[in-house]
TrEMBL record:
Signal peptide: none annotated. Residues 199-275 form the HTH rpiR-type domain. It comes from Nesterenkonia lacusekhoensis. This is DNA-binding MurR/RpiR family transcriptional regulator. The lineage of its organism: Bacteria, Bacillati, Actinomycetota, Actinomycetes, Micrococcales. Keywords: DNA-binding, Transcription, Transcription regulation. GO terms for molecular function: DNA binding. Residues 311-452 form the SIS domain. CDD domains: SIS_RpiR (cd05013). PANTHER family: GLUCOKINASE (PTHR30514), HTH-TYPE TRANSCRIPTIONAL REGULATOR HEXR-RELATED (PTHR30514:SF1).
């Protein structure tokens, strides 16, 4: 059935059982290119043609676009022939809990495209069209699920954002129709949306509690009653505390709309009270320096000497060494690449996220990918590690979270104990001092293993010091 616009902004879309590139099934409603054309034009007007193309390319990569398989003449005639759009009605975790779809599902749903929306989490942003459908929400209610923020994804940086609401509260440009608008010819202009209060994480948990399985409800209730304990617990620690499996903890997070436990944990941390100031009365630069360096002596308590020896051997013997990091860890990665190079072991660091993924995918069996991520859950770094897994190189992660998505992707880890005793405090301070020390110590070990005197570095410095 070909979707046709009805009553101006409304579209009647087919309801289909879909599958993404990783094999996850979901119930969706495909949106035709003709309906998306004005919204993509508004999207380009907002962010610029070049940036819009970049964000759309990231969506292509996630969706498993078949661009390379399209004939040359089709590419020329339609540069966006491979770009598809849809609205997710029932998410993969929900569909997995549901099992078989009931036969009484409607074949189509009426959807209204409301306006251009954006959510942002630090350097990551996601653009979309906010959609609303009373019929779709009614279907979800009949299947035992709570309300879901409907939207059509336009593009994103590196990875889509799933833990922030994509509803009217995220609108940046609302749809405005002229008196003669009657279909797809509507104009889109800047408009200040009505203020809609954001729903807290605990509010989202309470709203979706009834749709969870009994074991998942135990996790959700604990999060509502004692969020601070979740903030300070790993997924396994929380599972042991509640008496469920680690898989149940992760599944609960995904059922509530988060990509995993790390995102859920950080979202709860954002709503926790800010870290209190020292109460001993000491203030000033020296006091702050003592606070930052406190516990630094214990940063390497979890590091085994044999692990360091193996890592130094791999660095020295590798054909190529590529250092990967993003966000707060990026300066440490750049520092490590420079120090290794100065120590006689040339190493590469690329600041661009896409360049990182291309570079690590080309690594060979004798090469080494060394990633730095304190949380082990940085979305952009995870993409680079996933790309590195497609090579035959050895993967090492320098992290402070032994149980993390990044640790699961790598062959070995170098675990650093952060100076802060609190996960919440580490989010506020974002100190990487222990990583800076680790970088210097590791580079020094490599220099000693190679036997480089350091004279080359001294010579270069001497040549570049001005009188």
């Amino acid at each position: 059935m070909t979707p046709e616009p009805e009553n101006g902004a409304s579209l009647r879309l087919p309801v289909e059982l879909c599958e993404d590139r990783t094999g996850n099934r979901y119930l969706g409603a495909p949106v035709p290119p003709s309906a998306m054309a004005p919204w993509r034009e508004a999207f380009r007007a907002q962010v610029g043609e070049k940036h819009a193309r970049l964000l759309e390319d990231h969506k292509r990569t996630r969706d498993g676009a078949v661009w390379d398989e399209l004939p040359d003449q089709r590419r020329t005639a339609s540069p966006d022939a491979d770009l598809e759009h849809h609205i997710t009605l029932i998410t993969p975790p929900e569909l997995e809990r549901l099992g078989d779809l009931p036969p009484q599902l409607p074949q189509t749903v009426e959807v209204e495209l409301i306006g251009l929306g954006k959510v942002q989490d630090r350097e990551t942003e996601s653009w979309f069209v906010v959609a609303e459908s009373a019929q779709a929400q009614q279907v979800r209610h009949q299947l035992g699920f709570g309300p879901h923020a409907l939207h059509v994804t336009l593009g994103f940086t590196a990875q889509d954002i799933h833990h922030l609401p994509k509803d009217r509260s995220a609108l940046v440009a609302a749809q405005v129709r002229g008196p003669d608008a009657g279909g797809l010819g509507e104009t889109v202009r800047q408009s200040q949306p009505a203020a809609v209060p954001r729903v807290s994480v605990r509010g989202r948990i309470s709203a979706g509690l009834s749709a969870l399985q009994p074991s998942e409800q135990r996790v959700a209730r604990f999060a509502v009653e004692e969020p601070e304990r979740i903030v300070e617990s790993t997924a396994q620690q929380l599972a042991d505390l509640i008496g469920v499996s680690r898989t149940t903890v992760v599944r609960t997070c995904r059922s509530l709309g988060f990509t995993g436990y790390p995102q859920f944990r950080v979202a709860l941390a954002r709503e926790s009270p800010a870290v209190s100031e020292p109460t001993d009365g000491e203030t000033g630069l020296r006091a702050e320096a003592r606070r930052i360096t406190e516990g630094l002596d214990h940063a390497f308590d979890a590091v085994r000497e044999e692990d360091v020896e193996q890592l130094v051997d791999r660095i020295v013997q590798a054909g190529r060494v590529v250092v990967v990091a993003n966000g707060q860890s990026a300066p440490c990665a750049m520092d490590l690449s420079l120090r290794l190079t100065a120590a006689g072991r040339p190493a590469e660091f690329l600041a661009d996220a896409l360049a990182q993924q291309v570079s690590v995918r080309l690594l060979g069996q004798q090469d080494l990918c060394l990633a730095i991520s304190s949380s082990g859950a940085n979305d952009i770094t995870l993409r680079s590690l996933q790309a590195a897994r497609e090579s035959s190189a050895h993967l090492v992660l320098m992290t402070s979270q032994e149980e993390s998505p990044g640790a699961e992707l790598t062959d070995s880890t170098l675990l650093l104990v952060p100076p802060s005793s609190s996960f919440l405090e580490s989010l506020y301070s974002l100190s990487r001092l222990h990583y800076t020390v680790a970088v210097e110590a590791l580079a020094q070990q490599v220099r000693l293993r190679i036997g480089l005197s350091g004279q080359q570095t001294v010579d270069v410095l001497a040549e570049n010091i001005a009188d």
